[in-house]
Amino acid sequence: MTTSRIDPNLLERAAGVLRAGGLVAYPTDTVYGLAALPADDAAVERLFAAKGRPAERAMPLLIASPADLASVAADVPEVAQRLMRAFWPGALTVVLRRAPAFRSPAIAGDTVGVRVPDHPVPRELVWLLGSPITGTSANLSGRPEALTAYDVREQLGDTVDLVIDGGRCPGGRPSTVVDCAVEPSRVLREGAISREELVRAAGVRFE
């Protein structure tokens, strides 16, 4: 797996920070994300506090490949499979039923939002950790998304233990979010992928 221009030693350091309960900001194909280990309750609480985000607002998770999906989600409907085949890796977050064995304060209730980003840095981090990472944007809640490492530091300061500077994010728009845990599936946020593109890929209409 390639790591673009990022020093592999920095990625190892980032993995160590996350294992120790820290927070790491990282570049993606959309905007900068903020990582904690989902199973680390204290780290997730720190993340909510750093962003000023209400604890009841669930966060998406990033995985390295579709093969990792079974560790966090269950009951993947056909419409979700079509969308994932069309847009993963990429700027699509799919909300699915949570796998019964998976628990995290980063998610709410019995559903989980999941994405495979089209960027080597978060995928490599997940691979090194053997765990998903949180995929929430690295900004203060209600403020513009961070597109550069400078933006992250300007908004979050020293609440983040490590910022991986991958340059300006190429996407600049957050991921599109589709809730496939309901019938019919529903577009919760139209981001980098348009509703029309979703309809063409899935062959169905969305609420």
Summary tags:
single chain; alpha/beta; DHBP synthase; seven-stranded mixed β-sheet; 6 helices; globular
What does this entry look like structurally?
The chain has one domain: DHBP synthase (Alpha-Beta Complex), CATH 3.90.870.10. Helix content is 29%, strand content 17%. The model has no long low-confidence stretch (mean pLDDT 94). The protein has six helices and eleven strands. With 207 residues, it is of the alpha/beta class. Strands 3, 4, 5, 6, 7, 10 and 11 form a seven-stranded mixed β-sheet that branches. The protein has a four-stranded mixed β-sheet with strand order 8-2-1-9, sandwiched between helices. The radius of gyration is 16 Å and the shape is globular.
How many helix segments?
Answer: 6
CATH superfamily: DHBP synthase
**Element order: H for helix, E for strand:** HEEHEEHEEHEEHEEEH
Q: Give the overall pLDDT as a whole number.
A: 94
CATH topology: DHBP synthase
| Total strands | 11
What's the structural domain tally?
A: 1
- Euclidean distance between termini CA atoms: 37 Å
CATH top level?
Alpha Beta
Shape, principal axes of CA atoms: globular
What is the strand content? 15-25%
Main sheet specs: 7 strands, mixed
Structural class: alpha/beta
* CATH architecture label: Alpha-Beta Complex
Portion of residues within helices? 25-40%
Low-confidence stretches: none
Could you tell me the radius of gyration in angstroms? 16 Å
